[in-house]
Amino acid sequence: MNTFATSKLSHAHSLSILNTLREYDEFMESIGTLVDLGCGSGIDLEWWASLTTRDDTPKPLNIRCTGVDQFETCDIIKKYPNATYQRMNFEDTASLQNNKYDVLWCHDAFQYCLDPLNTLIKWRNITNDNGMLILSVPKTIIVHRGKLAFHQYNSCYYHHTMISLMHMLAVTGWDCVGGFFQETVEDPCINVVVYKGMQGPLDFNSTTWYDLAEQNLLPESACKSINAHGYLRQQDLVVPWLDRSVTWMEKL
Description:
globular; 7 helices; two-stranded antiparallel sheet
């Protein structure tokens, strides 16, 4: 069982993010290369490969797109000369090391990482300076009939939350200060957009929340929470999203 029953339903969720990104014409036209990590059947990959400008007479952006997954093939790429596919485990990016990407897209796939911290470092290594990582990770902790409920799918070994994702991203060298985060009651996923940070990965064992706050690697609301309590409380987070909305986690 998966979060979305079909690839079309998964793509419908992707569109809530993709259509918001497309509102930023200058940003979209600046993208030269993209990798879809865990591309599945390739519907999201096709969206990126077929992207055009929003002019009265649309022009193809011709983003050079790479799909990565463990399926034998991805038929969608046969339709687009600017799309390629590599059959591989997205935790092992050795065959991608000679490439750098402007955007890393990972929708409904990061939850399968067996080693998420080192995977995030490897992904950072294949990202161009000022490049962007876009993550959409299913929630496994929900409120059901007024009580906390937990569920976990096959091959998923972690319960990801907004603060656990923020923690991992900051310590592995992704910029959470200028990042975007979204979580709503209706959305089955936590959505994150972060840029490759100037600060490289830190030591997992010795780095504390205070260290991350002092080095300005977290959003302002996170730093305030850490300074007040010694750790990060999710209910203290006030974080922006791509559509200029703000999520007050305390109100969820």
